[in-house]
Design brief:
Blueprint lengths: L1 E6 L2 E6 L3 E5 L8 E4 L2 E6 L2 E4 L8 E11 L3 E7 L4 E7 L2 E11 L1
Antiparallel strand pairs: 1-2, 1-5, 3-10, 4-7, 5-6, 7-10, 8-9
InterPro entries: bL21-like, bL21-like_sf, Ribosomal_bL21, Ribosomal_bL21_CS
Protein name: Large ribosomal subunit protein bL21
Pfam family, one: Ribosomal_L21p
C-alpha cells in the first residue's frame, strides 16, 4: 500500500514505515502530524485517484528530526566585465516517518 501526498509544494510517494525529508514543518520532534492533501492511494489492485484530492484520505506521520540540507553554491559571472558573485544557500527540512495511510 502506498500513497502520493502533497506537502511543501512538492509531491511524494509514501509507504508505511518509510522516512522522508520534506520542506520544514512547524512541529516538535516526536509530534504526530496529519497530512491531508492526498492525491492518490493504491491498495493492491484498488487505486483511488482524487480530483484533485482523495476524499477522506489522510497520512499520519511522526516528526523524527529537523535539519538543514547540503549547501547549494550559486556563482554568477559576466565574462569580460569583471563581475563575479558568489552565494550559498542551505534549505531547512523536516524528516518524517510515515505511520499510517487512512482511506
Amino acid at each position: 500500500m502506498y500513497a502520493v501526498v502533497k506537502t511543501g509544494g512538492k509531491q511524494y510517494k509514501v509507504a508505511i514505515g518509510e522516512k522522508l525529508k520534506v520542506e520544514q514543518i512547524a512541529a516538535d520532534i516526536d509530534a504526530q502530524i496529519v497530512l491531508e492533501e492526498v492525491l492518490m492511494v493504491v491498495d493492491g489492485e484498488a487505486v483511488s485517484v482524487g480530483t484533485p484530492l482523495v476524499a477522506g484520505a489522510t497520512i499520519k506521520a511522526t516528526v523524527v528530526a529537523h535539519g538543514r540540507g547540503e549547501k547549494v553554491r550559486i556563482f554568477k559571472m559576466r565574462r569580460r566585465k569583471h563581475y563575479q558573485k558568489r552565494q550559498g544557500h542551505r534549505q531547512n527540512f523536516t524528516e518524517i516517518r510515515i505511520d499510517a495511510i487512512v482511506k
